[in-house]
Specification:
The protein is an alpha/beta fold. It has one domain: 3-Layer(aba) Sandwich (Rossmann fold), CATH 3.40.50. The protein has a five-stranded parallel sheet with strand order 2-1-3-4-5, sandwiched between helices. Helix 4 links the parallel strand 3 and strand 4. Helix 1 packs across helix 6. It is globular, with a radius of gyration of 15 Å. The N and C termini lie close together (about 10 Å). The mean pLDDT is about 95. InterPro entries: Flavoprotein-like_sf, FMN_Rdtase-like_dom, NAD(P)H-dep_reductase. This is NAD(P)H-dependent oxidoreductase. Pfam families: FMN_red (PF03358).
């Protein structure tokens, strides 16, 4: 069974990004070991000095989960035309490693607009040598209008696009 680690760039409970990741989890439950990492808000501020001398246990746990995964899905909002600081911090804890090198990764930016955050995330993950394919990248603009009060994605095209990205990621593993 393939193992996918999902990372939400949002720390908000019941965020739109959490809705997207839970939608994926529901659709993959029978065929994929799917875990949503919920600790980016618990990671300390990135400090390269700690990388060699006293790596925090939560950082090691995060790195272990990335290493064990066959593929990664990052789903993030856009804050002030960029990535949320907590997501950038989580990624920075991996810059001294090769954990993302050749690792199949899907990028989903679900926000009001999302273009600038998407560009930043794509550049960062390309720099880390992640295995990114055009078919494993998705921007979902206006995400809040595509989710109903029951916290379900009601927009059919959005659901189809999400599943296409996930299937493309699974094929690239």
């Amino acid at each position: 069974m393939k193992k996918i680690l999902a990372i939400s760039g949002s720390t908000r409970r019941s965020s739109s990004n959490e809705v997207v990741l839970n939608y994926i989890k529901t659709h993959l439950a029978a065929t994929v070991d799917f875990e949503i990492f919920d600790g980016i808000d618990k990671l300390p501020h990135f400090n390269p000095d700690l990388d060699n001398d006293g790596l925090p246990a939560i950082v090691q746990t995060f790195r272990d989960k990335i290493q064990a995964a066959d593929g990664i899905i990052i789903c993030s909002p856009e804050y002030v035309f960029s990535l949320p600081g907590s997501l950038k911090n989580a990624i920075e804890w991996n810059v001294s490693t090769t954990l993302f090198s050749n690792k199949p990764v899907a990028l989903i930016v679900a926000s009001a607009s999302g273009q600038k955050a998407f560009e930043a995330l794509d550049l960062i993950m390309t720099t880390l040598d992640a295995d990114l394919q055009p078919s494993t990248k998705l921007i979902i603009p206006g995400i809040k209008g595509k989710i109903n009060k029951a916290r379900e994605i009601e927009d059919v095209e959005t659901r189809e696009n999400i599943l296409h990205v996930v299937q493309s990621l699974l094929q690239s593993i």
